[in-house]
Amino acid sequence: MEWQTLIDEPAVIAAAVLALGLVVGYLVGRLNKELLSASGVPDAVEGTPFERTAQSLGTSTVEIVARLSSWFIYGIAVLTAIHIAQLLDTDAFWFEVTQYLPQVFIAVLVLILGFIIADKAELIVSEYLRSVKLPEVSVIPRLVKYAVLYVAFLIALGQIGVYVLPLLILLAVIATGAVVVGTFAFKDFLVSSAAGIYLLLNQPYGIGDRIRIGDQAGIVQEVDLFVTKIEDDSEEYIVPNRKVFEEEIVRVRE
Amino acid sequence: MAGVDDVFGDIFSSVDAIMLFGPSGSYYERFTTGEDSDVVVVGTENDVGAETFVELPLEFDEVSERVRFGIEGALEQDVIDDGDDLACATSVFSDDIDTVSRVRADADAHTGIYDLFAKSRAEPAVIKSVLELAIELGKKGQKGKPVGALFIVGDAGKVMNKSRPLSYNPFEKSHVHVGDPIVNVMLKEFSRLDGAFVISDAGKLVSAYRYLEPSAEGVDIPKGLGARHMAGGAITRDTNAIAIVLSESDGLVRAFKAGELILEVDPEAY
User: Fold this and answer.
1) Which A residues, 103 through 132, put their C-beta within 8 Å of a C-beta on chain B?
2) Distance between CA atoms of B91 and B100, rounded to whole angstroms?
3) A208 and chain B: CB distance < 8 Å anywhere?
């Protein structure tokens, strides 16, 4: 009979739950680690700054995620134990916490994922752009990284119930602003490059041809995406390619 | 051994500037911290982040060439003055600096070798890659046989008007630039074609198979060089282009500017 009363004692049940939680948490952590390792996550995250930071702290991305799931279960176990032991007898608190804990867990997970995806995206984009020999291009990978991070933060904040609508509006305003300013500022460049693509593909005139664009006449020295360089005896004209379409091209033949 | 210091000390005593050719980072550090005379770093790349730096277009194997180019570049950039005494520290036998020689900067002994890169119409990087290409081609030849090649770099519009095609232009409607990885292979294959390669200021391969028609009047190139060199040298007098010629007979790479022979390098030495 003594056993029975002992088992009915809330403190004992709470302790049992706590112990079980610790064991399950540890096992889930290990299992997660194995699963992540087996599914090639360490290879996928290799080289990202997040992983490097984790390495320098003596851990790794996989370990952090695994640890996180363990802590999540530890947390639940502790809370359940507290509830059973009736240390804090407030249903409202309990309700809040059960609502909140998974959300925090998901938010942290989303953040970690966001960091990794952002770093990875930066790497992939910069790899892709490597053949483009323009120093300014290095901005684009960074832009991609911060865009992904921003979205990850938004999702994470949304998860833990922060009111994200103003942030979303901010994002929309920045995006439209960038597009509008970009099209205004680079309008001529865009038009020129569109014309330049045609010129490069079709080559209506090539280097060495004598042409006239509007008032400028001479020998073509260079054709690139944005401009055509024409040179006569004393002057070299650098004509934006959009001009080539606005005024007609005359090929001068003797 | 005090006597050795006395005797060799003359070499670097009271110099106006020290020129370091391709120093390592720590070597350069020792100079900037301890020394109060000017230090000029010369090299293919500014690895040490030196303030005064003269870029070498090639890792000249011949020490005198290397030093001469460095001095000419430094004179051109006004980091040293005519008549300055210079201690030039460079490497001859090992990769580290092992030799110091005392040279007096002489603006009259101007060969234009620095101008060839820095003051030509075409971009220096383009000239550098074409030169490297010619050296590479001279070293390996085509399938082991020596080949000759003629590259006309810069002022492509004028060059095209002073030449005519020998056959279809393989680079018609292509957008290949010198320095693209594929170009070395392509040019190696095309080098058996007769005629000249024409390359624009920005490095675009405009044409192959060009027969150059400059007026060869007053072109002064060393006797014994053939038609290829004559054509290359002459076109640089008529236009603002430079010519980089790989000789089939003696395997040397020569560069012409304004009708004059500026640079002569042996590909085997690189």
Assistant:
1) none
2) 9
3) yes
For strand A210-213 and strand A216-223, is the pairing parallel, antiparallel, or unpaired?
antiparallel
Report how many domains make up chain B. Answer: 2
CATH class of the domain comprising A205-251: mainly beta
Amino acid at A229: K
Sign of CA dihedral B64, B66, B71, B73: positive
User: Where in chain A are the domains?
Assistant: 2-185, 205-251
Which chain B residues have a beta carbon less than 8 Å from that of A253? none
CB-side neighbour CA atoms (13 Å) of A180: 6
Min distance A143 CA to chain B CA atoms (Å) = 27
Tell me whether A27 touches chain B (CB under 8 Å): no
Q: Name the pTM for this structure.
A: 0.63
B94 and B191 share a domain? no
Does residue B129 share a domain with residue B247?
yes
Q: Across the interface, which of B175, B202, B207 has its CB nearest the CB of A222?
A: B202
- What's the pLDDT tens digit per position in A164-211? 788 888 888 988 998 898 888 888 888 888 888 888 888 888 888 899
C-alpha span between B32 and B39 (Å, rounded) = 7
Q: Residue A8 has which token pair?
A: 């009915």
Q: What is the pLDDT of residues A73-86, one digit of tens each?
A: 888 888 777 777 76
Residues B226 and B161 in one domain: yes
Q: Per-residue b/e over B129-148, b at no fewer than 16 CB within 10 Å?
A: bbbbbbbbbbeebeeeeebb
**What's chain A's Rg over C-alpha atoms?**
32
Last residue of a domain, one of B94, B110, B126: B110
Cβ-proximal residues to B79 (8 Å cutoff; 6+ apart), any chain: B17, B38, B40, B52, B54
Beta bridge pairs of residue B164:
B211
Strand order in the sheet with A249-251: A236-240, A227-231, A216-223, A210-213, A249-251
Task: Say if A7 is an interface residue toward chain B (CB within 8 Å).
Answer: no
What is the extent of the structural domain holding B80?
A: 2-110
Q: What is the spatial distance between Cα A97 and Cα B197, in angstroms, rounded to a whole number? A: 76
Of B121, B83, B100, B200, which is closest to residue A224 (Cα–Cα)?
Answer: B200
Check: CB of residue A85 under 8 Å from CB of residue A14: yes
Say if the Cβ atoms of A207 and B204 lie within 8 Å.
Answer: yes
Complex ipTM value: 0.72
Residues B134 and B247 occupy one common structural domain: yes
